[in-house]
Amino acid sequence: MIVALNNKSNLPKDDYLKYLMKIEQLQTSSKLILCPTFLNIGLTSTNICLGAQNVSKTEEGAYTGEITAHQLKSYNVEYCLIGHSERRYNQKEDLTDISAKMKRLLEEEITPILCIGETKETRDSDKVAEVLKEEIITAIATIPKNKYNKIIIAYEPIWAIGTGKIPTLSEIEEVFSFIKKILPDSKLLYGGSVNEKNIDTLKRCSLIDGYLLGGLSLKLSELKIFLNKLDN
Ligand code: PGA
Predict the structure, then answer these.
(1) 212 in contact with ligand 1, CB cutoff 6 A
(2) Which of 51, 62, 95, 159 is spaced 20 to 30 Å from 131 by Cα?
(3) CA–CA separation, 62 vs 20, rounded Å?
(4) Does the C-beta of 217 come closer than 6 Å to ligand 1?
């Protein structure tokens, strides 16, 4: 299983260094991908597999405040989240931005973890497939087909992020089967309120290749229980 840990904008330097020591000691057969803030990426010279939470849509140049895929590569970043709903909504990232980021990452051979997901209104109006299809199709529009298998998709319903609510297994299965029709070789993660309790249920979905954890990434004792349950 893949387990990506999205720290979001948490953990100042000293707290992060303590956290990192504990993360390194976790025993698990899952592949952990740690996604700290950019500053904390710079502090992480360990064997832990690194992911970034964002990347610039541009190449290197006069783009104040941006961090490029090429720079991430020089810090051994192997994965990068793109299209997280918090960025789509708070930073107003649009489909074109996300498509450019996808391109930059693949040029540097960094694996994009494309986050997609619907709002509650979209689900209630039965437009989930339509919305997710657009999010995927525009993100891969400029990507050669032979690179599709390098893309990981993280399905995170927006109404499930940080709310304690999760979709039913049949809702997840329906979405994952639909994604598989577009990207048959992509690994599929589920994210949104995953915790050490609901993993017992989520584990029953055979289409899930892993999880994207937000809140749980910061709660180490619960994370430990979660990883043990995944292994057993
Ligand atoms: P959550 O966040 O696990 O806290 O719901 C997941 C995410 O936003 O990636």
Answers:
(1) yes
(2) 51
(3) 33
(4) no
Q: Is 184 exposed, middle or buried (0-12, 13-18, 19+ CB in 10 A)?
A: exposed
Which residue puts its alpha carbon closest to atom 1 of ligand 1? 214
Beta bridge partners of 6: 35
To which H or E segment does residue 111 belong?
Answer: strand 111-116
End-to-end CA distance of the chain: 12
Could you tell me the distance, in angstroms and rounded to a whole number, from the CA of residue 158 to the centre of ligand 1?
Answer: 9
Q: What is the pLDDT of residues 158-201, one digit of tens each?
A: 999 999 999 999 999 999 999 999 999 999 999 999 999 999 99
Give me the residue label for tokens 């941006």: 66
Asked whether 85 lines ligand 1 (CB < 6 A), one says no
Q: Which residues are catalytic?
A: 84, 156
Q: Are strands 188-191 and 210-213 parallel, antiparallel or unpaired?
A: parallel
What residues have CB less than 8 Å from 90, skipping those under 6 apart?
none
Any atom of ligand 1 within 6 Å of the Cβ of 161: yes
Q: In angstroms, what is the span from residue 45 Cα to ligand 1's centroid?
A: 25
Q: Which of 98, 62, 69 is nearest to 83 (CA)?
A: 98
What gap in Å lies between CA 5 and CA 31, rounded to an integer?
A: 11
